[in-house]
Amino acid sequence: MSSLTELPQIRYEDPLVRIDWQAVDRECWWLPPQLLSLAGVPEFEQLTVRARQQVSHLEYVHLLEAGLWLESQFMGRLARLAHRSADAAHRARFLHEVREEAGHSLMFVELLQRSGYAMGGERGLGTRAVDLCGNLLSSRSALFWAMVVIGEELPDQLNRRLRRGAEEAILSAVVYRIADIHTRDEAMHCAFAREQCRQSAARCPAWQRALLAPALSVAIDLYARYVYFPSAAIYTRAGLAPARLWRARALANVHRRALVARMLRPTLEFLNRSGWRVSSRYCPQH
Ligand SMILES: [Fe+2]
Ligand SMILES: [Fe+2]
Fold it and tell me: How remote is the CA of residue 101 from the centroid of ligand 1, in Å?
């Protein structure tokens, strides 16, 4: 691995002690209303504020569950990279990121425990496919780093928009703090993943990238669907019935689809600039 980004001199602070956990509150929004998968759907907008807030809690819980799964993948890979690295600076870089991801996961678990929301444990086809790829792909491969970029950036896009909800003072203070800490750390993770993605794509022959790009496009769609369109089980847990009908409404929701396209575009553009001819059905104008 060449020219790793230098680790900036930052002081690590345990995120668990940076959050006032006494302030966990269910009588507020956990995601701004405009970020909900059903935002703008007339049947949904007619529900009471309390019912829609409950959906915001469960959609955020879904984001936490996606984060816990993804971070477990990253931590495993990063720990192995650190172990195999002969260079002390590289080793430190990887271990620092493991520590940050562990801190994020601990925040997620703490919020789930304190708020009384249980983990759903639903595993989709997409997550199983990524589990498999994550174990099979070499960390020197261009496909691996392209997938890391996608994995880091898609949830981060939602988290960045979530922080804006705090400006309207409607969002849970604890959720805002979690998103704030998370997005600050992720900015560095995403920059690092992009650098590795650029370098590994440049080393990868064009014919190989052309051959792998359709699989990468499928992975983007599966992952975008998983992150941005919660499963029917989430709506059930939020008290919306029949859940399958609500999920169908979310999938057909033009407001959601426009938001998803905006969230996907920066990542798709970056991958194309790096030599990956990828596209997504959720970002047709790209
Ligand atoms: Fe993270
Ligand atoms: Fe990360």
Answer: 5
% of the chain surpassing 90 pLDDT: 79
Total number of domains in the chain: 1
Which residues, 6 or more positions from 131, have their beta carbon under 8 angstroms from its beta carbon?
A: 73
Query: What letters, b where the CB count within 10 A reaches 16 and e where it falls short, cover 201-224?
Result: beebeeeebeebbeebbebbbbbb
Note the ligand closest to the C-alpha atom of 153. Answer: 2
- CA neighbours closer than 13 Å in the CB half-sphere of residue 102: 14
Asked whether residue 6 is assigned to any structural domain, the reply reads no
Compute CA 200 distance to the chain's CA centroid, rounded to the nearest angstrom.
22
Q: Look up the domain containing 242 and give its range.
A: 28-273
**Quick check: 5 pLDDT over 60?**
no
Residue 266: the pLDDT is 97
In a domain, 249, yes or no: yes
Q: How many whole angstroms separate alpha carbon 93 and alpha carbon 82?
A: 8
Distance between Cα 152 and ligand 2 center (Å): 6
